[in-house]
Amino acid sequence: MAVILSFLAAVAAQGLPPAEALPPPDGDTAAVLAPINAVFAAFESGDAAGMLRYVYPEGRVTATGTRANSSGLRQQSWIQFAERLKPGEGFQERISDPAIEIDGDVAMVWAPFVVRVGGKVSNCGYDHFDLVRDNGTWKIMNLTFSSRTTDCPAQ
User: Fold this and answer.
1) Does 3.10.450.50 match the CATH number of domain 26-147?
2) Which of its termini does the chain have fewer beta carbons within 10 Å around, N or C?
3) Which domain of life is it from (predicted)?
């Protein structure tokens, strides 16, 4: 234990190296994020038809947490989810610091999100998107997300 404490004290005295900025997204990363950003824009405008252009309608939207039913789980098809969109509600969802993995024509995006309604934080959690590229175009197959109304960032 004393060796570990000595090591930590030495590291603290020397300081840590400066943080380096992450590189800008490459073409594949930007292409994977494009349908996600388009879906968020459709959420904001209440454009159900626009949202469905960026997803596989037979895919699923799965929610867990405080916004789900009493069992803690809610599942819908993208079509059912689209039926809930309403223009003018002031809905806005933003993700930050996405972790993106791509293997060929399959991709995964995991990111914290914050939802605002009328400019006020409504809920937050983590989004998990899985995407498939078909004929050169990325589309969202499924979205699974957690949801809570406490400990949300105010950003």
Assistant:
1) yes
2) N
3) Bacteria
